[in-house]
Write a structure and sequence with these properties.
308 residues
Length: 308
């Protein structure tokens, strides 16, 4: 992704459409001043302050609206937003609260079976918008930039991006010389990947994972907690990958009201990966690295913190 740029006026959210804008009747509280929202957006607060802010936003509807507006305003100056506006055209709804819309849509659909869950994601426009605003606003951690030294240390050449979403990590990995295959449901998000790359990155459906091309590394970022049965879905891949990269799993994730997240304790995930011969090399606060046990002695260990 190129450096942030000013998007055309027509593509930017119009301030008049923002819900619950601060004004005489709705003064901003100390939790939602521009400076505080900026610090929260870019994770410049200490963990205790981040937790306090998250709890406040969960309980204060007015401040949550201001937070949603702040994210959209920050995202509007990023080229990814321009790409989304070009892709969606009149379907783009500026200032849509995609987080709450996604949660409400899930509750209304109430999918129970694997087929119903797949169909939900195949049709969700809110999920596409949520992923774009998360990244374009600057809130998404720099996963690829952080992981590059470890991928290089382990001699990784081919990567399978499991749950590739809008394809940003797959695009960045390919730009850095890796052969990348994406995996996700055929959906507005993967259609956006095709739009962004002119179809040059292959994206396979989850059902095709057992027959997906061989790969050195699995890239599983913000995806494990979307999978009801990780062993059933990824077991054959986990049994053969030399390296697995996840987000830092030692932190408790706070995903708001979306019931489609499967929250699992770190010990459960570590035990699952260990059952496939994968041991944690530690984490760097952004990514966590899991390598086949027999390979640990033959490769340098990333500059990382050990798991608790």
């Amino acid at each position: 992704m190129s450096d942030p740029d000013i998007v055309p006026e027509a593509a930017m959210p119009h301030s008049g459409t923002a819900p619950d804008a601060p004004g005489p009747d709705h003064p901003a509280c100390e939790f939602t001043t521009p400076a505080v929202l900026h610090a929260y957006l870019h994770r410049h607060m200490d963990p205790a302050a981040m937790d306090a802010m998250r709890r406040h936003l969960d309980g204060c509807e007015r401040c949550w609206h201001r937070w949603n507006r702040h994210r959209w305003d920050a995202a509007a100056h990023h080229p990814l937003y321009t790409e989304l506006a070009d892709f969606l055209g009149p379907r783009l709804r500026p200032y849509l609260d995609s987080s709450k819309a996604l949660a409400a849509e899930w509750d209304a659909a109430d999918p129970q079976t694997d087929t119903e869950i797949a169909e939900f994601f195949r049709s969700s426009l809110s999920y596409l918008i949520n992923l774009v605003i998360w990244e374009a606003s600057g809130n998404r951690p720099p996963y690829v930039a952080t992981a590059l030294p470890t991928l290089t240390q382990y001699g990784i050449r081919t990567v399978l991006d499991v749950g590739c979403g809008i394809g940003s990590d797959a695009i960045a990995l390919r730009r850095n010389g890796f052969t990348v295959t994406g995996c996700d449901y055929r959906s507005p998000s993967t259609q956006f990947v095709h739009h962004r790359t002119n179809g040059t990155i292959t994206v396979v459906e989850p059902i095709a994972l057992p027959t997906a091309p061989g790969t050195d590394a699995l890239w599983i970022i913000d995806t494990l907690d979307h999978i009801p049965d990780v062993g059933r879905s990824l077991g054959r891949l986990l049994a053969h990958a030399r390296l697995v990269v996840t987000e830092d799993l030692t932190h408790t994730h706070q995903h708001g009201r979306q019931r489609f997240h499967h929250r699992r304790p770190y010990s459960e995930l570590a035990g699952l990966l260990a059952s496939y011969g994968l041991t944690s090399l530690g984490n760097d606060g952004v990514c966590q690295y899991w390598a086949r046990t027999k390979a640990r002695g033959s490769h340098p260990t990333p500059n990382s913190r050990p798991p608790p």
